[in-house]
Amino acid sequence: MRVLAICPQLTSGGAERQLVCLCRHLDRTRFDIRVVYYESAGPLLEELQSLGIPVVHVERKRLGALGVLRGLRREMAAWRPDVVDCRLPSGYRFGRLAAAGRSALVVIAEERTELRAAGVRRLLDRRLNRWTDAWIGNSKVVADHIVRDLGMPPERVHVIYNGIDVDRFRAAAEDPELAALRRQGRRVVLNLGNLSPAKNQKMFLRVAERLRREHGDLAFVLCGQGPLREPLEAYARELALTDACRFLGFRQDVAPVLASASLVIQSSDWEGLPNAVMEAMAAGVPVVATAAGGTAELIEDGVNGLLVPIGGEDGLAAQASTVLADEALARRLGQAAGDTIRRKFSAPAMARRYEELFIRLLVEKGWHPQGAVIA
Does domain 2-163+346-364 have CATH number 3.40.50.2000? Predict the structure, then answer.
């Protein structure tokens, strides 16, 4: 069965990393997958190539949007995929436009946050539903947003949770820079994710300033890259956190960073199902987070992490301080978090759900791929 995944870029975002994770765990004896991108690429391109996944780059510089549409239609005509899987807002708009009129294939659009499009984009998303066999949300919150804001019938909306390669986080060696801080007697408090408005890292820095006054042995680390790096560095200086704060930039593998962490604080205003929280949980690091998006579907408050309302700076600081002051609580939360990821959010389980959905949707169209088994 041929699956064409359309993803605008292959850089460092959660949607792109989940695509790579799917490619790694998809049953390659039954599914032939290739990836098309038309913007920028980074280490994830190399990772796909190392897995033997064909990757096609569609040039958009000369003809802009028209060039992307022509390139995608040309790829569909040449390769004749059975399933088109469209990721990120640009990808699910271009991908569905390119697939319009090709009734034999299954077209899936994927949404990974509850950020709402407005104006022409929102109208286009709704109009393109006529050429969309299914939407996938990575959390129940996102699935509700697809029904409510994008106008998709509930029976054509499916929840497939993100998957984590749990083995990457077992006994990972510590990041050398952070290990040096720990040898100095400093505990690492970590924020993971792109440096962007949705993550509200300004609030993380304000919480850091408060925690520093209560616990003097802390180092605050932001791991991620994005458009707000320079403003956040300036804000850290304004809060007199320069000597206590580290900006690591993008890390292809966050397991060593997490191996050095005593606590992860996530301050987001918007999320889908955050990879950063899942990775911290997989590493057994206690997490204090805002209940943004699907975070509350990962964390059961007081059982495998601690939750506060979105924008709840006082609560975030208080709960983080509680964990830092109670080693037994931190250990219990971390162990329960790791158990949750292994039980419910493993990468192989995620891939099996995709396989079942691909086959089911094709069979509903009258196709009977060889060896298709409907669970």
Answer: yes
For 317-365, what is each residue's pLDDT tens digit? Answer: 999 999 999 999 999 999 999 999 999 999 999 999 999 999 999 998 8
Higher pLDDT, 15 or 334: 334
Residues, the chain, total?
Answer: 375
Q: Determine the Cα–Cα distance for residues 2 and 83; give it in Å rounded to an integer.
A: 6
> The tokens of 108 are what?
């899936």
pLDDT value for 62: 65
Place of tokens 């929280």: 277
User: What distance in Å separates the CA atoms of residue 254 and residue 248, rounded to the nearest whole number?
Assistant: 11
Using one digit for the tens of pLDDT, what is the confidence trace for 22-69? 999 999 999 999 999 999 998 899 999 999 999 999 987 666 888 899
In tens, the pLDDT along 2-14 reads 999 999 999 878 8
Closest listed residue to residue 287, CA positions, set 271, 300, 273, 272 = 300
C-alpha 335/C-alpha 27 separation (Å) is: 31
From the CB of residue 350, how many other CB atoms can be counted at a distance below 10 Å?
21
Domain ranges across the chain: 2-163+346-364, 166-343
By three-state DSSP, how is residue 182 classified? Answer: helix
Calculate mean pLDDT across residues 138-157: 92
Which CATH superfamily groups domain 166-343?
Answer: Glycogen Phosphorylase B; (3.40.50.2000)
- Torsion, Cα 79 82 88 89, to 10 degrees, reads 90
Pairing of strands 218-223, 187-192: parallel
Rounded to 5 degrees, φ, ψ at 5 are -100, 125
117 or 252: which leads in pLDDT: 252
Do residues 43 and 16 touch, judged by C-beta distance below 8 A? no
Helix (H) or strand (E) segment spanning residue 46: helix 43-50
